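## retry 2 of 3
previous attempt timed out at serialization; input unchanged, resubmitting
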Amino acid sequence: MNTENIIATRPHKVIYRDGSRCIKAFDQEFSKADILNEALNQARIELAGLTIPKLLGVTEVDGKWAIISEFIEGKTLAQLMDENPEKKDEYLAYLVDLQLKMHAATCPMLNKLKDKMHGKISASKLDATTRYDLHIQLESMPKHNKICHGDFNPSNIIITADGTPYILDWSHATQGNASADAARTYLLFCLNGDKDGAKKYLELFCQKSDTALQYVQKWMPIVAASQLVKSNESEREFLLSWVNVVDYQ
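## retry succeeded, writing output
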């Protein structure tokens, strides 16, 4: 197995290309259970009929757990946006269309989004009163069973030479409310410093899905609180500003 061709480095993981295979190797920050769950998510999403890299195996590489997938040749939607800034609105519309296609699918074996969010809120280190309010607000939100990616952003979309889009990275996948997934995508744009892109994305999502902006915004404090668990110090102030708009009864 060739691990010399590094194609990406992320916090606590390295991604290699080995011919037609993509190898994602994790360090000790990731538990064996988390890695196996990501592989299981990917296998289940394959069964849902979405266009994603095929899971090829789970193994150890130099003492580290690794997920082996089909390597997809192409450019990320983020790269295309950088290379063709005049087409950004077109790419944002494409991103939303792809996300809505994903939301139209179901995968009954995925973990529940609400369960994951409750766990993240509990682990957020927010004060007890804020955590209580967030738990109550989360529980009051409608329960759906749509596929939610959890990290749906332009860097996780690969477009091949023939125009086929592949959705990458299913580690955060759950089944639940599509507007929660949209709220997270909005926050990811903001955290990446693209507030204009975030605004346009959210307007397009609400327009194309016929969803009230206020409804997606109700998910923002919940999603921001869940993001606090893995945020760095530079992101924390922004996320806390969203957590603090919880509606108090």
